[in-house]
Amino acid sequence: MAGPRWKRRAPVSARARIVGWMVLLVGLALAVSVGLSWRVLLARVDERANAELVHESRKLRTFASSATDQRGNPYRKVDALLERYLQETLPEAEEEAYFSVVAGRPTHRSLGTAPARLDTDPAFVARVAAATEPTYGWADSSAGAVRYAVLPVRVAGDPRPGALVVLEFRDLQRREVTDAVRVLTLVGFGALAVAGLVSWLLAGRVLAPIRLVRQTAERIGESDLTRRIAVSGDDDVAQLARTFNNMLDRLEAAFAAQRRFLDDAGHELRTPITVIRGHLELMGDDPADRRETTVLVTDELDRMSRIVDDLIVLAKATQPDFLTLAPVDVADLTVEVVAKARVLGPRLWTVAEVAETTVLADGQRLTQALLQLAANAVQHTTQGDKIAVGSTASGGLVRLWVTDTGPGVAPDDQERIFERFARGSEERRSEGAGLGLTIVRTIAEAHGGVVRVDSAPGRGATFILELPARPPPAAPATPHEQRVGRATG
Questions:
Q1: Cβ burial, residue 81 (10 Å; 0-12/13-18/19+)
Q2: With helix as H, strand as E and coil as C, how does the chain read?
Q3: How many C-beta atoms surround the C-beta of residue 189 within 10 A?
Q4: I need a surface site. Which of 192, 236, 353, 452 has the fewest CB within 10 A?
């Protein structure tokens, strides 16, 4: 026999949970407020009934002390006095009635139709007739509970006991309160239903970005990090969507950098590894052959080391700690770069111009970029050529440049040479892996700046780093790295 099959409960959405709790809390508050209002109003009905009984007692006392018959003489009979009082005193509401009792028998009653005839109830009549002093109490009737007062009356010369009975039909008075509370309840819970519907619609609009965040997160995989959430507005939910999009940007940049590193390493290291393996396999026992193979293998290993170092620099460019910002004296930086670059080759090294200003930047990275440009200039010039390093500052920008008197850069190559593993098309080719100028561009863009070349064949080249005096906050990836990442993905 198969065991019990448990049905998995469908997950409750945040929208339903929020609206449900809101409706529940508001409904409870509404129910409590209606219940309290009902009790307060009922208490006021009872107070009003008691106050009315006391008021009738005072009216009767005042009337009895000054009442006279048509001839102006005081009343001699108690039934005549009570009859006259009932003729002049009318019930103030439909839920009120009077009748008189004389010698244990009901004699007269107030005008109008009473909700219930208690003057025809022998037991009730006997009870009120036995009262010898003002008495208050409760009685049952066909119209519900009745609050009553018995006000005894004595007339000089008439031995018969008399009394005025005042009836307040409390349940009928409460009926108005109950009807009002019923209407209040219907209106309140009707408004709550409308508010719940409106809240459901509004919650759907408010939680739509969160739902998109969840759906986007479910569809995102390592091979597809391009999805983004459309953001509108400036509230907390919109800020959440923007934060999620920024997180996706960082993830996409990180995965793209990882793929580029693996692709570049595999592409560039495959050749030297093949060269090293081939020469080692063919190396014989001849000492001269071994020395020649050792020199070649060492040179290839050095080239591999340079490639790995360059790739590591490019990979670190996507990390927040790529730059260590501090105030940098541009004039000192320019002079120090020329002093360090002199060992790169026998050229005519000069300081063209210096900017007497300070920039917030990473001095070591800027030195690395300028030395890379200087090394590039050495590779494309000969002994006796002039290489100058300079700097200027204007309009909130700082410009650092390296200029040479070499063969220059063809117009078609001026953008391409900054790409990875790209080399110029002139006859004298660089011995590097083609990553030097890419590193320069990466350092410039990490500072929020750009690098460009001003050159023409035959008149040398000037490489210019243009940086803001105060770079923007660190980003997870430079715009160039993001473009390359999306193209690679």
A1: buried
A2: CCCCCCCCCCCCCHHHHHHHHHHHHHHHHHHHHHHHHHHHHHHHHHHHHHHHHHHHHHHHHHHHHHCECCCCCECCCHHHHHHHHHHHCCCCCCCEEEEEEECCEEEEECCCCCCCCHHHCHHHHHHHHCCCCCEEEEEEECCEEEEEEEEEEEECCEEEEEEEEEEEEHHHHHHHHHHHHHHHHHHHHHHHHHHHHHHHHHHHHHHHHHHHHHHHHHHCECCECCCCCCCCCCCHHHHHHHHHHHHHHHHHHHHHHHHHHHHHHHHHHHHHHHHHHHHHHHCCCCHHHHHHHHHHHHHHHHHHHHHHHHHHHHHHCCCHHHCCCEEEEHHHHHHHHHHHHHHHCCCEEEEEECCCCEEEECHHHHHHHHHHHHHHHHHCCCCCCEEEEEEEEECCEEEEEEEECCCCCCHHHCCHHHCCCCCCCCCCCCCCCCCHHHHHHHHHHHCCCEEEEEECCCCCEEEEEEEECCCCCCCCCCHHHHHHHHHHC
A3: 16
A4: 236
β-strand 450-455 against 386-394: which pairing, if any? unpaired
At residue 351, the pLDDT reads 93
When mean pLDDT is compared across 13-17, 147-151, 163-167, the lowest value belongs to 13-17
Amino acid 188 reads G
For the purposes of burial, counting CB atoms within 10 Å of the CB of 97, is it exposed (0-12), middle (13-18) or buried (19 or more)?
Answer: buried
Strand partners, 389: 351, 402
Output the CA torsion 58→60→65→70 (10° steps): 150
Distance, in Å, from the CA atom of 45 to the CA atom of 436, rounded to the nearest integer, reads 95
Residue with tokens 């770079």: 471
* Greatest mean pLDDT among 253-262, 291-300, 333-342: 333-342
Measured over the CA atoms of residue 110, residue 114, residue 117 and residue 123, the dihedral's sign is: negative
Q: Mind listing the pLDDT tens digit for each residue in 75-86? A: 888 888 888 888
**Other CB atoms closer than 10 Å to residue 186's CB: what's the count?**
10
Predicted pLDDT at 62? 85
Contact 98, 91 (CB under 8 A): yes
Q: How far is CA 196 from its chain centroid?
A: 21
Residue 472 CA to residue 318 CA, distance in Å, equals 15
Question: Kind of pairing, strands 326-329 and 348-353?
Answer: unpaired
Structure confidence at residue 185 (pLDDT) = 87
Among all chains, which residue has been given the structure tokens 């780093």? 465
Pairing of strands 144-155, 358-361: unpaired
Token pair 């009902």 is found at 38
pTM for this predicted structure: 0.46
Residue the block writes with tokens 């009859």: 83
